[in-house]
Amino acid sequence: MRYCFLFIIFFVCNFNLILGNDYIVKSYDNHNLHGTLIESESLNSTLAVIIAGSGPTDRDGNNVNIKGNYLMMLAEGLNENGISTFRYDKRGVGKSLGDITSADEIKFTDYINDAISIINHFRETKKYKRITVIGHSEGALIGMIASRSIADSFISIAGAGEDYLTLIERQLSIQPEYIKSMSTPILKQLKNKKLVDSVPPLMNSLFRTDVQMYLIDASSYLPIVEISKLDIPVLIIQGTHDIQIDVDDAIKLDMAAKNSQLKLIEGMNHVFRQASENRLLNIQTYGNPNIPIDNNMVDLVSEFIINKT
Questions:
Q1: pLDDT tens by residue, 143-162
Q2: Coil, strand, or helix at residue 23?
Q3: Which domains does the chain have, with CATH numbers?
Q4: For labelling, which of 174, 204, 283, 291 has a CA lying 20 to 30 Å from the CA of 8?
Q5: Which residue blocks in the chain are alpha helix, DSSP H?
C-alpha cells in the first residue's frame, strides 16, 4: 500500500541521499539549496527551473525507496532541445538538508520562497533570455505561486486541481473501508485547522504529528485560485494513466487559468512513463530507471518553451 496514493510516501524522511554536480543557490533565509544546472550550448538560452513533487523527492525524481530518475530524464531531454535546466533538492531533501532535523521545521511557504529565490537568482545572472518554471505534482502548486510576476511562463505536470486535504481524501476513497474509517475523522479535524493528538499507526505515514501543520498550511492554497492569478502563458500536462492525479484535475486548472494550453498524454502515468491502467503494474514503473519517459511529453514541454521565447 506504500505507493497507492500520493501522500502515502509523504515525509518518509531520509536526508542522506548522495548526489553530485552541485550548483548552490542561497534561499531567502540563507539556506543552501543544492541543484544540478545543465547549460545549453545555445547562447542566451531559455532556462527551465524544475520543481519536484511531494515528500523526500530529490532533484532527479528519486527518494530513499525509489530510483526512477524521471526528472533527470526530463532535464536531459530538454537540454537535447537547446533548453538549459536547473533542478534542485528541496529544503530538507538530499544535499539541501542544512541544519534541518525534523519535518515540522519545514513550512509550505518555505518551499514557495525557496522557488522564488531560485528564480530571482537566475534572473540576476542575466544569462537567460527567459525563465520557465516546471512544477511536478506538489511542485506544480509551489511553482504556480512562485512564478507570479517573476517567471516568463509556467508548466504544470500532474498538478492537482484541489487542495491537499481534499486530494488525500479522494485518494483514500478507493482504499478499504477500515482505512477510510480511520482517516475520515482525522481529515475532518485537519480541514478545521485543528491538530490531531492521536493517529492510528497505519495512518502515521500520512498524518503523523510533525506533518499535520504542513498539510493544514498547504491546504490553505487552492490550485484553481492560484493558477488564475498568473498572467503568463501556462501549459498544463496530464497523463491519462496517472493513478495519483486525475484528468479532471488538469481540466479544472485549465478552466481556471487565463492563458493556458491543456495537453493530455494518452497512457502516461505520474512519473512520465507509458504504463498500464492496472495499479500494481503502473506502480512498478516508478522505480525502474531503465524505462524511458514519454517522448511526447518532452516534445510538448520543449515546443511550449521555445515558442514562448
A1: 999 999 999 999 999 999 99
A2: strand
A3: 6-258+277-300 (3.40.50.1820)
A4: 291
A5: 70-80, 108-125, 138-146, 164-172, 177-191, 204-207, 209-218, 223-228, 247-256, 279-284, 295-307
